[in-house]
Amino acid sequence: MLPGLLLTIIAGLAVVRVVRYVRPGYIIAGGLLLNAVGYTIILATGADGGFGGLLVAFMVLGLGVGAAETISNDLILSSVPPTKAGAASAISETAYEVGAVLGTAVLGSILTAGYRNGVVLPAGLAPADAEAASETLGGAVEAARGLPEGAAHELLESARAAFDSGVVTTSLIGVVLMLVAAAGAVIILRRAAADH
Question: Which of 57, 84, 92, 104 could make an S-S bridge to 80, C-beta 3.0–4.6 Å?
Fold first, then answer.
């Protein structure tokens, strides 16, 4: 995740110069579209993308987040008088944190539900191992260590396929949400610019 974080910082610094020439709403929409591209990379490559696919996806997401977040924070702070800047900054930071946690919780729950619905547990698995394997991919890997080779292979294949399916579903939802948010940013911020 480190390269993505580095690109988030670089994008946040670079976009300050770009906003002089491009409307803020377009930059925010562009950042959200980059996020959609990042999710699309995960969606398209799935398990076949391996580490490289995830690395590229997180780098693209980092660029998108850095651009969109920086400009949205700037818009929030510049829309209030200087005496209210502290309160506006707190609201902006709170909204970002709540959005990040809520997004992680909702998308993580969807991924977990997809995994649970897709994993097939072999017969004869101890109850504690069955529970762990049905909860997470890590639990399935751990449970497979105590199984005969054939059953272990079967469990691992099923768990990996279920996890990959959950990731694909979650990525598809991420793409749709980013596209809707980008369209919303253009429409809402165009109206806001017209009102001023």
Answer: 84
Please report the pLDDT score of residue 196 as a whole number: 44
Phi, psi dihedral angles at 87 (to 5 degrees): -65, -40
Give CA 115 to chain center in angstroms. 17
Structure-model confidence comparison of residues 29 and 44, the more confident one: 29
On whether the CB atoms of residues 35 and 174 are closer than 8 A, the answer is yes
The number of distinct structural domains making up the chain is: 1
Q: Is the pLDDT of residue 32 over 70?
A: yes
CATH of residue 119's domain is: 1.20.1250.20
Q: How far apart are CA 56 and CA 86, in angstroms?
A: 36
Residue 1 clears pLDDT 80, i.e. is over it: no
Give the span between the Cα atoms of 19 and 127, in whole angstroms. Answer: 58
Residue 103: domain span: 2-195
